[in-house]
Q: What sequence folds into this?
C-alpha cells in the first residue's frame, strides 16, 4: 500500500457528510465561474477598444462560453461545427488542476469525493450552458449566432467537463491505481500515450515546416485584415485551430487521409479545393507530394520501434510486453478514430472537415501493434539472455568465493598431502573425492597409524590430531575439484579466464592452513616420533614460526 499522504493542517476536512461533499463539488466547480469572469473581462476590453456599445455583451459572452465547450453553432442558418480546439483544451487543463488540488486538500479522499468533484464541475458547466442558450435566444433578433441544438450543447459541455475533471481525478489517484491494475495494463496505457504524443509531435513539426515554406502565401492572406486588429484576429484564429490541424495531420503518418471540404491530403496524393481565408489554411500543400514525403511512414515505424524498445525493461515476461504493446496500439487507434469527431465538423458551405477515421485507425492499430510488439519481444529476449547470463556468472562467483570458508591450505602441506595420497594409491593419485573414500578402509582409519608402527588408538591425543590432519589433507587437495564438480551446470569459461580470482583464492587458502598444519606437526614431534624422511625436502620449507614443543 502507498504511504499515507501528508495533508496541510489548515486544509484538513472530514470526508464524511453531505456538507463536505457539497464543499468539494463547489470547490471543484470554481474554474467554471472564473472562466466566465475572464470571458466577461476580455469581451469588455474588446468592446471598449472597438468603440461599440455594450448591448451585445451578454450575448457575446454566451457564444464564447459555447465555443469554450466546443458546442456546434449556427450562423444565419449556416452550421459551424468545425470549432477551434485550443480553448476547450485550456479549459480542460484548468479543470484538471483544480480537481486534483481539491482532492489534495481532503484528508483521505475516496470515490465519493472524486464523484462529487466531477459532478460539481459537470452540473455547473451544464447550468451555464443552459443560461447561455437562453441569452443567445433572447438576442436572436439582433444576434445571428446561436447553438445548433440544446441537447447537443449540453452533451458537449458534459463531455468537456467530465474529461477535464476526470483527468484531475486520475492524476491524484494514479498511485493507488498502480496497485490495482496489472503491470501490462499500466505499461500499455503509458506506452499508448507515448505513441499518441509522438504522432502529434511529428505532425506539429510538419505543420511548422509547411508554415515556413508557405510564408509568402500566409503574408498575403494576413493582408486581408487591413490593420492591426484584423491581422491579430486572423492570427488568433489560426493559433486556435492549430490543435485541429495537428490532430488531423497525425492520421497522415499512418497512411490515412485528411479532407477539408473538397480538398483532401495524404502522403500519396493531394486534391485541391476551395479553402477558407485564414493564414493557417494557406500553409496546406497544393501540389502532389514528393516521394520523400512518403518516407513519413518510415518515421512512424522508427518512432514506434524506439518507444517500444525504450520500455522493454518494464516487463519480466514476453507475454506481458506483447499485451501491453497491443493495448498501446489500440489506444492510438481509438484516438485516431475519434479525431474527426473532436477536431472536425462542418465548416459552413465548404463542407465537412476531418479524416478517414476507419482507415487511419486500422492502419494505426496494425502498424503500432506489429512493429511495437515485434521490437519489444526481441528486445526483451535479448535482455532476458543477458540477465540470465549475469545471474549465472554471479552464482558461479559466489560458489568460488564460498571455497574460502573451507579449511585453508599451505603450499608445502599441499605437496606433502599429494605425495601421501599418491603413495596410498599410485595408480589413481587420489585426485578425486571418490578415490579418497575408496582408499580408506573405513571411517575409523581416519585416525591414522602410529609413526612407529603401533596400532591406532594407543595415544588418544595423537589419534585425534592425525584424524584432523587427514581431513585437512583431503580438503586441501580436493577443494578446487569439488568446486568444479558443483558448478558443472554453469559456463566455466567466463570465470576460468580470470586468473586473478583463482590466485587470490589459493593464496588466501594457503595462508590460513599454516597454523593448523604446524600445530599438528608439533603435536607429533612431542610424542618422540622419528624424524621425517630426509628425502622429503619439502619438510625443510615449513615456516620457522611454528611453535616449539615445551614437553
A:
Amino acid at each position: 500500500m502507498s504511504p499515507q499522504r501528508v495533508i496541510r493542517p489548515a486544509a484538513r476536512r472530514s470526508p464524511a457528510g453531505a456538507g463536505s461533499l457539497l464543499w468539494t463539488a463547489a470547490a471543484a466547480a470554481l474554474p467554471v465561474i472564473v472562466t466566465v469572469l475572464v470571458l466577461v473581462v476580455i469581451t469588455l476590453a474588446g468592446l471598449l477598444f472597438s468603440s461599440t456599445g455594450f448591448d451585445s455583451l451578454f450575448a457575446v459572452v454566451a457564444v464564447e462560453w459555447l465555443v469554450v465547450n466546443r458546442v456546434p453553432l449556427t450562423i444565419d442558418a449556416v452550421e459551424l461545427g468545425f470549432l477551434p480546439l485550443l480553448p476547450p483544451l485550456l479549459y480542460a487543463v484548468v479543470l484538471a488542476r483544480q480537481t486534483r488540488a481539491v482532492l489534495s486538500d481532503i484528508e483521505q479522499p475516496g470515490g465519493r469525493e472524486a464523484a462529487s468533484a466531477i459532478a460539481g464541475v459537470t452540473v455547473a458547466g451544464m447550468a451555464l450552458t443552459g443560461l447561455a442558450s437562453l441569452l443567445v435566444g433572447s438576442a436572436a433578433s439582433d444576434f445571428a449566432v446561436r447553438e445548433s441544438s440544446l441537447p447537443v450543447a449540453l452533451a458537449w459541455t458534459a463531455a468537456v467537463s467530465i474529461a477535464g475533471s476526470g483527468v484531475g481525478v486520475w492524476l491524484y489517484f494514479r498511485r493507488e491505481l498502480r496497485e490495482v491494475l496489472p503491470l501490462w495494463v499500466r505499461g500499455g496505457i503509458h506506452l499508448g500515450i507515448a505513441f499518441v504524443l509522438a504522432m502529434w509531435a511529428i505532425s506539429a513539426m510538419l505543420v511548422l515546416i509547411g508554415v515556413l515554406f508557405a510564408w509568402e502565401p500566409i503574408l498575403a492572406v494576413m493582408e486581408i485584415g487591413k490593420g492591426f486588429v484584423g491581422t491579430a484576429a486572423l492570427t488568433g484564429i489560426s493559433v486556435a485551430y492549430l490543435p485541429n490541424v495537428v490532430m488531423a495531420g497525425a492520421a497522415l503518418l499512418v497512411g490515412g487521409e485528411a479532407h477539408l471540404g473538397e480538398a483532401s491530403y495524404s502522403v500519396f496524393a493531394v486534391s485541391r479545393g476551395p479553402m477558407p481565408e485564414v493564414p493557417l489554411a494557406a500553409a496546406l500543400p497544393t501540389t502532389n507530394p514528393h516521394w520523400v514525403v512518403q518516407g513519413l511512414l518510415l518515421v512512424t515505424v522508427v518512432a514506434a520501434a524506439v518507444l517500444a524498445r525504450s520500455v522493454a525493461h518494464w516487463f519480466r515476461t514476453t507475454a506481458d510486453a506483447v499485451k501491453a504493446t497491443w493495448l498501446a496500439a489500440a489506444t492510438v487507434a481509438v484516438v485516431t478514430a475519434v479525431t474527426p469527431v473532436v477536431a472536425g465538423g462542418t465548416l459552413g458551405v465548404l463542407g465537412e472537415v476531418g479524416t478517414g477515421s476507419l482507415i487511419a485507425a486500422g492502419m494505426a492499430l496494425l502498424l503500432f501493434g506489429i512493429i511495437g510488439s515485434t521490437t519489444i519481444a526481441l528486445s526483451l529476449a535479448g535482455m532476458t539472455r543477458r540477465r540470465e547470463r549475469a545471474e549465472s556468472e554471479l552464482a558461479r562467483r559466489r560458489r568460488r568465493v564460498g571455497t574460502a570458508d573451507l579449511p585453508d591450505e599451505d603450499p608445502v602441506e599441499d605437496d606433502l598431502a599429494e605425495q601421501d595420497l599418491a603413495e596410498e594409491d599410485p595408480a589413481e593419485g587420489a585426485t578425486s573425492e571418490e578415490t579418497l573414500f575408496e582408499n580408506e578402509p573405513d571411517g575409523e582409519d581416519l585416525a591414522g597409524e602410529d609413526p612407529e608402527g603401533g596400532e591406532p588408538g594407543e595415544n588418544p591425543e595423537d589419534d585425534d590430531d592425525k584424524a584432523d590432519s587427514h581431513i585437512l589433507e583431503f580438503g586441501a587437495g580436493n577443494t578446487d575439484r569439488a568446486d568444479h564438480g558443483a558448478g558443472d551446470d554453469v559456463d566455466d569459461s567466463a570465470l576460468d579466464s580470470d586468473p586473478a580470482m583463482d590466485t587470490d583464492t589459493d593464496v588466501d587458502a594457503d595462508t590460513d592452513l599454516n597454523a593448523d598444519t604446524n600445530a599438528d606437526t608439533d603435536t607429533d614431534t612431542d610424542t618422540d616420533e622419528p624424524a621425517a624422511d630426509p628425502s622429503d625436502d619439502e619438510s625443510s620449507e615449513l615456516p620457522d614460526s611454528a611453535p616449539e614443543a615445551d614437553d
